Structure formats: C-alpha cells, structure tokens
Amino acid sequence: MDVLAVGCGVALVVVFGAAVVGKARDLPAFARSLEGSRLVGRRWRAWVAGGVVVVESAVVVLLVAPGTTWYGFALATAVSAILTGAVALTVARRTPAPCLCFGGPPRDLEPVHLVRNALLTGVSVLGLATGAPPEMEQSVVAGLAGAVAALLLIKIDDLRSVFR
Q: Is 129:99 a contact under the CB 8 Å cutoff?
C-alpha cells in the first residue's frame, strides 16, 4: 500500500467509523430518515438502516485488518457509489429528506451532500487503485492528511454554512 493508499484508508476509516457511530447512536431516527427519501418504505426502513450500519462497519474492519485492505476499498467504493446515487435521486426529486449520515441534528439532503459522497467515492477508487508499501514517516504524514480530509468531509455542512 503506498502513501496515497494510507491517506485514503485513514480518511475512509474515519468517515465510515464516524458514520457508524452516528447512526448506531440513534438507529431508529436514522431508520425514520430513510423513509423521508421515498427510497425505502416504512416496512423495510429498520432492516435497511441496520444493513447500512453493518456494511459501513465492514468497510472499517476490512480497511484496518491486515491483508483485507483491497476488499475494504472495494466495499467502500460500492457503498459510496450507492449512497451517492441515493442522494442524487433524492435531491433531483426535491424530496425533503433529512441527512442523519453522522448522527447529530438532521439537515435536509442538498447538493453539498452529493458532492461529499462523490468525493468519498473518489477517495475509495483512489485507494483501490494504489499499491506498494510506503516508508513509516510517509505513512504517518499520509495518515494525518487522511484524517484531516475525513474531518472536512464529515463537517462539510458546517463548513458550507461558514462560507455562505
């Protein structure tokens, strides 16, 4: 895994880890928010919400466990692409649906969430496309850069409100 892969991996672990914690903290609220998008019916929302948390947890485990990083990047790519599509459809329909992606106060899904998910998909693809192991110093710097990138992606709503 090269320096780029380390940075991408750390960014994804932080983002998906924060998403898991935020959703699991109030899983029923996350499940209700899915119904607002009109992509998941009332009957399936609890199952889908639980499934999302399980799959996002799997991304974190695969990216951290030795020898499974490639699978983690592949799963992160698939999950990010699916979530990007779901957000795109919801935004295009102009359906007022709350985003409880990281827990916290609900905010309606908007184009900024689409940008965030597209960037996350890009980070996943970039990590998937990388290879050779870096030096330890490079890994630390790449890891810190990945963590900063992850925090920016997580707090994109707050950053947008500052620059409005």
A: no
Helix (H) or strand (E) holding 99: strand 98-99
Distance from the Cα of residue 84 to its chain's centroid: 10
pTM: 0.81
DSSP string, 100-111: -BTBSS-EE--H
SS3 state of residue 98 = strand
Using alpha carbons, select from 96, 105, 95, 58 the residue that is nearest to residue 79: 58
Token pair of 146, please?
């990945």
Mean pLDDT of 121-146: 71
pLDDT tens track for 23-60: 899 889 888 888 777 788 888 889 999 999 999 999 99
Nearest C-alpha neighbor of 5 from the set 144, 136, 139, 112: 139
Tokens representing residue 113 in the block: 């969430």
